[in-house]
Records
---
Amino acid sequence: MNFQRGKEREALELNLVPMIDVMLVILIFLMVTTTYTKYNELQINLPSADAARQLEHAGEVDVLVDAQGQYVVNRTPVAYVSVEQLAGELKRAAGTAAEPVVVVSADANSTHQSVIRVMEAARVAGLERITFTTQASR
């Protein structure tokens, strides 16, 4: 016996809103937790610079790094003991300049670590502006 003979059945409906919400939560989770490594995929060839010589500005702190990792700050040799000691030398060399610029001139054969020490010492000393010198290509 069919007691619902004249009554039409309601059409079935697939509600996609909850499924879209779940997919967005999964997408956000994957975006937050995924690490993007670019070091393995990139082949880096460092360029040589052919720029015009910049004028010297007041408040520049010149730091020279030779191939053996020895430092010279404003024409004064500095024996490396620690980053804090090098930071003190940079701060002393900057003096009372408003916005001193640390100019790093590193030998092509100097170690990466010796340049990073200068950058870390500049950060500790509160010197935020750092630039690097290059040699014009021949």
Note: The chain is about 30% helix and 15% strand.
---
Amino acid sequence: MAGQIADRRLETAEPDAFLSAFDAFAQAVRRARGAPAGQARVLTLSQYGLLELLLDEDHARVRDLAEYAGVSAPTATRILDTLERRGLVRRRQSSEDRRGVSVTLTDRGRRALNERHAWIRNRQRAFYDDLPLPERRLAPELLLSLADLIDELTAGPQY
């Protein structure tokens, strides 16, 4: 009897625990997107997310960077303004389309992006390596499901 009561408590606590954990996760994502670059970080996560496409490209259009990062073109432009003032990127009129603006990394910007990318990947791998084996097996599917849920929440209800 006592075991059944404990099982019922666990069943009702699990959804509440998930909701609290999801809220904490979402708040951490919002904090990360808005965090200013500290002295130890040359690029914020938002700046990194915008420039990530340039890890494998010499240049990209502002609208392509914005689309890849999941931000509006005006938001991308504001981020690029800051990065350009800091000497990390250069913007020029696109050679393919006079209306478009092409973004390239400076040498300093390329180093900063590569360093941030290496640090992020190392932290992600270390986190994964610290997970117990059953959680390692579940993690990829769970993260993809969370990404789908965040996209759905962003889109809002479909009336």
Note: The mean pLDDT is 87.
